[in-house]
């Protein structure tokens, strides 16, 4: 399959990975934008209301969003490193602590971390057997989990990861 068709197939499969409306939210922790179409953005607002002024727009997949105080109903106060405002809690989900390790890979084998959730996607990093300090980002699809490790973000097969 030619590379553009592979990428188009991957992007179609990832088009909209939905997460439950009750995703975990924690004050002082990093969160990512979820439940937004990849071609759309989450509106950060000046107050906790859909009719409040839009301060900034956060694209799908954006992480580094910090919840700075307790949510009030469905609205959470956040900072994104540049702006502060409010978002509906349905559109953010907490990044896991770095408590996962490579599991089920032995010998000289390495676990590939790929740019997209596909065996045909380019490898951006290889993880050693039993490597730990892996964070789960709140995105998964068809057995693939998006992770962050050693400053890299990418996709790997979830079956090769376990909690510490």
Describe the structure.
The protein has about 160 residues and is mainly β. It is about 5% helix and about 40% strand. It has one helix at about 5-15; strands at about 30-35, 40-45, 55-60, 65, 75-80, 85-90, 90-95, 100, 110-115, 125, 135-140, 145-150, 150-155, 160-164. Strands 6-5-4-1-7 form a five-stranded antiparallel beta sheet, with no helix packed on it. The protein has a three-stranded antiparallel beta sheet with strand order 11-12-13, with no helix packed on it.
Distance between the ends: 38 Å
Shape: elongated
Overall structural class, as computed from helix and strand content, comes to mainly beta
Low-confidence stretches: 1-21
Q: How many runs of DSSP E, i.e. beta strands?
A: 14
């Amino acid at each position: 399959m030619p590379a553009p068709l592979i990428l188009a197939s991957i992007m179609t499969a990832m088009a909209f990975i939905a997460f439950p409306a009750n995703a975990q939210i924690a004050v002082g922790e990093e969160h990512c934008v979820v439940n937004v179409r990849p071609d759309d953005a989450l509106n950060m607002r000046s107050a906790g209301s859909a009719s409040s002024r839009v301060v900034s727009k956060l694209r799908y997949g954006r992480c580094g969003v910090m919840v700075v105080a307790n949510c009030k109903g469905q609205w959470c106060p956040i900072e994104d490193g540049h702006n502060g405002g409010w978002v509906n809690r349905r559109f953010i989900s907490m990044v896991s602590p770095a408590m996962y390790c490579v599991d089920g890979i032995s010998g000289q084998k390495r676990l590939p971390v790929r740019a997209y959730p596909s065996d045909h996607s380019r490898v951006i990093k290889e993880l050693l057997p039993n490597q730990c300090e892996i964070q789960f980002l709140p995105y998964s699809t068809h057995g693939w989990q998006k992770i962050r490790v050693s400053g890299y973000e990418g996709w790997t097969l979830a079956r090769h990861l376990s909690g510490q």
